[in-house]
Amino acid sequence: MIAAIAHDLKTPLTSINGFTELLATHKDLPETEKQEYYDLIQRKSGYMVELINDFSSFTKEKLELESMVAKPVKASKLFENIALEYEYELAGLDNELTCRHSFTENILLMVNEPMIRRVFGNLFSNAVRYGGKNKLKVYMTGYPLGQHAFFQIEDNGIGVPDKDISSLFLKFFTVDKSRQIQKGGLGLGLASCKSIIEHHRGEICAYPSEYGGLGIRFSLPLAAQH
């Protein structure tokens, strides 16, 4: 893991060194050109800070999972609270969220709610960040099937090549390195989702969405009924 982080930090750090050396050795550059290099240095530095923060959060999360406490939560209430929260958040970014579920009031999940909320947060953030559209449409669905509750987050964005679908949940994997540098992130968001869901004895997968973009589906076991 450390080697992967060092590799991802090397690229922006090399650029920063190059820009600072150029500014130091070419003091007669026009002010407009100097400002462009200052802006580039600032963006590259910000990207490095984000990489370090992502790694720190991922490491902290692993420790939290080891002492995770699960409590019974109504599937319908969890779904509706998440839907309400992100409907406004996505609308504020000029995107649209459509939600529907078929959970009845008596369907309970045994989960650590803050952790599951983190999964939804990562999935919505991932959709908006990499959807590739200014006015993205996101679809959230929930339903019970057998002894599990299923949740789906889909979008009508640019999607992911079929060859990359199976690798999305690997640590540090990004579909396109140029998109990673432009949008930020270390490629830990979906790996984090997988870790959380599996600690809840659920499963998570990615697939091409019927809306044209990416779909993510995860399951959580239903709480035992007494």
Could you explain how this protein is built, in words?
By secondary structure, the chain is an alpha+beta fold. The chain has helices at residues 2-25, 31-66, 75-92, 113-130, 162-165, 177-183, 189-199; strands at residues 71-74, 96-101, 108-111, 137-145, 148-155, 204-208, 214-221. The protein has 2 domains: 2-66, Signal transduction histidine kinase, dimerisation/phosphotransfer (DHp) domain (Helix Hairpins, Orthogonal Bundle); 71-221, Histidine kinase-like ATPase, C-terminal domain (Heat Shock Protein 90), CATH 3.30.565. It contains 7 helices and 7 strands, in the order ααβαββαββαααββ. Strands 2-4-5-7-6 form a 5-stranded mixed sheet. Strands 1-3 form a two-stranded antiparallel ribbon. Residues 177-186 have low confidence and may be disordered. Pfam families: HATPase_c (PF02518), HisKA (PF00512).
Please provide the ordered H/E string of secondary-structure elements.
Answer: HHEHEEHEEHHHEE
CATH architectural grouping of the largest domain: 2-Layer Sandwich
Largest sheet report: 5 strands, mixed
Tell me the domain tally.
2
Give the distance, in angstroms, between the N- and C-terminal Cα atoms. 44 Å
At the fourth level of CATH, the homologous superfamily of the largest domain is: Histidine kinase-like ATPase, C-terminal domain
Give the number of helices: 7
Query: What class, by secondary structure content?
Result: alpha+beta
Number of strands: 7
- Backbone shape: elongated
Residues in β-strands, percent? 15-25%
CATH class of the largest domain: Alpha Beta
Helix content: 40-55%
Q: Kindly report the oligomeric state of this protein.
A: single chain
Protein name: histidine kinase
Subcellular location: Membrane
GO biological process, one term: cellular response to phosphate starvation
Domain Histidine kinase: 4-224
